[in-house]
Structure formats: structure tokens, C-alpha cells
Amino acid sequence: PAEPLPRIELVRVLIGLNELDEAAALLDQAQLPGTEPLRLRAMLLQRRGDVAEATGLYEQIVTADANDFESWGNLGHCRLASDQIQSAIAAFNRSLALRPDRPSVRQKWAEAHFRAGTGEQALAELRELARKSLSDPNLWIAIAHLQNLLSLPDQSFEALEEAVRVGPSNADALIGLAEALEQRNDLQRLERVVVQLAALERPVDKLP
């Protein structure tokens, strides 16, 4: 594509498909405006495991645009991968303050708190958020993830059940519950959940 926007989207798609060499070649050829080339370059580096260089680029990006919630989240991922736990939490906090509806960032935030030894504090915060946002299944998914990290399997299972109750058409909640049911060898309930997954309008990338 000759226009900048289609090129940007194509590079993003290629990165998502892990076609990194093709994405890098297109990015090198493209004359893209603004900070987007830097953002895409950082994403490529992150996918290739070069988190140190990606961290530096993301820090440049959020310095230039403090409202870039995506780059704040990716910066948190990179810092967490480099064992910069507290600074990862700070980056995740910035991302979630701008866009609280990002499940992958919320779960990594929970993981970072677990690794920092503040998992129970984070769990209390998540429960309070869930109490205030009764219709958000992603908060219950994050609660389940953190409880699993804290070796609370029964509570984690209950949280996944609550996630499905709150969001019966949420694919991530259904997948999480299906995986938990499979671990418990509850094949009868697992079959029902798989039927629910198959009935969703959008395709599901994985089934247990």
C-alpha cells in the first residue's frame, strides 16, 4: 500500500502474525509520519526478545506522548521481562489510568505485583474495582489469574465462574473456565462451556 495508514496497519498485522522479517522490511521501505515508525520498531524489537532496546524506544515514545496507553503497557511488559518490577508496575499504572479496559495489561499488572510481593494488596484492589464495576468480566479474569499465582486454586476457579456469569459471551472468561474445568476433569461442564465458545460470533484462537 502506498498510503501511510494502510502501511501502518499492514506492519501491525505482520507483527501480530509474527512475520517479523517481512514487517521489518516494509517498515524500512515506508516513509511513515509521526511517532508511529518508532512505535512499530519498538514492537518488532519486543517480539524478537530485544527488550532492552525496545524499552529505550518506548521510553522515548511516552516522553513525547504521555497519553499513549499502548506504549505505556508495552513498556511495562518490557520492564517486567527485565525484572524491573517496580518500574513495570508504574508503567502499567499509567496505561490503565488512560485505558482501564485492557485485560492483558491488567493481568501483567497483577503478575508484577505478585513478583513484587504485593499480590495480596493488588488482589484487594482488584476486588474493590470489581465491586464498583459489576459488569466487567475482565476484572474477575485478572482476579482469577492473581489468585492462581497466589496458590489459591479454589478461589481462582470461583472467580472464573463469576467472570462467566458477568460476561457469558466473553471469550477469555470462557476459555479460562474451560481450562480450569479440564484441569479438574469436569468433562460434563467442560463440554457445555466449549459449546458456548463455539457459539460466539467472533472466532476463538484456541480451545482447551
Would you give an account of this structure?
The structure is a single chain. Helices cover 75% and strands 0% of the residues. It is built from twelve helices and no strands. The two termini are 38 Å apart. The model is unreliable at 203-208 (pLDDT under 50).
Structural class given helices, strands, pairing?
mainly alpha
- Count of helical segments? 12
Number of strands: 0
Sheet having the most strands = none
Task: Indicate the low-confidence ranges by residue numbers.
Answer: 203-208
Element-level helix/strand string: HHHHHHHHHHHH
Question: What's a quick, concise take on this entry?
Answer:
With 208 residues, the protein is mainly α. It is 75% helix and 0% strand. The protein has 12 helices and no strands.
Describe the secondary-structure layout.
Layout (H helix, E strand, L loop, with lengths): L3 H13 L3 H10 L6 H12 L3 H14 L4 H13 L3 H14 L4 H14 L2 H14 L4 H13 L3 H14 L4 H13 L3 H12 L10
Helix pairs in contact: 1-2, 1-3, 2-3, 3-4, 4-5, 5-6, 5-7, 6-7, 7-8, 7-9, 8-9, 9-10, 10-11, 11-12
Question: Keywords for this structure?
Answer:
12 helices; single chain; disordered C terminus; mainly alpha; 0% strand; 75% helix
